[in-house]
Structure formats: C-alpha cells, structure tokens
Amino acid sequence: MGRKSKYSADFKLMIIHEAETLGITRTSRLYSISDHTIRTWKLIYKYQGIQGLEPTHSNNTYSKEYKASLVEEYQKSDEKL
User: Contact 12/41 with Cβ under 8 angstroms?
Assistant: First the structure.
C-alpha cells in the first residue's frame, strides 16, 4: 500500500507564495510546518513546477530479478559506495 500525502499540491503552492510574502520562518510557525519542508517545496517547485508538488501515492517496487541485475552490474564495475 502506498503512502498518503498530508498536503495537496494547491496547499503546498499556497504555502510557497505565503512564504515569499511573510518569510519562511513566520509561515512555518503559522501553519506548523517545518522550515525545511517549506524550503524543500520551494526547490521542487522551482525545478519541477506544480507537477513536482503533486502527491505520489505509491512507493517504488522492484522485482527480485531487477535487483539482482543491479547488484551484478555493480559488482562488475569499479564503483564504490
């Protein structure tokens, strides 16, 4: 089962605009949302637009075969974590 977003894209956008007017700290206190969350929403909106603020309702799931192929590729490469 996927996760449910607490906030809609419209609400996030409203918070972003409010933060531009009132400032991030004041807006975060007014709506009880962390400064970090508002800054994150601003960055997402800047680079991805309103679509980036849309809630996602599913976690990514990968098959065992796909995971195994990634591990195999990693082991063949010279990359380190």
Answer: yes
Q: Indicate whether this model's pTM tops 0.90.
A: no
Q: Confirm whether 62 is domain-assigned.
A: no
- What is the distance between the alpha carbons of residues 50 and 61, in angstroms, rounded to a whole number? 25
Is residue 76 one of the residues assigned to a domain? Answer: no
Summarize pLDDT for 15-58 with one digit per residue, the tens.
999 999 999 999 999 999 999 999 999 999 999 999 999 887 66
Determine the Cα–Cα distance for residues 36 and 16; give it in Å rounded to an integer: 12
Residue 7 lies in a domain: yes
- 46 in a structural domain: yes
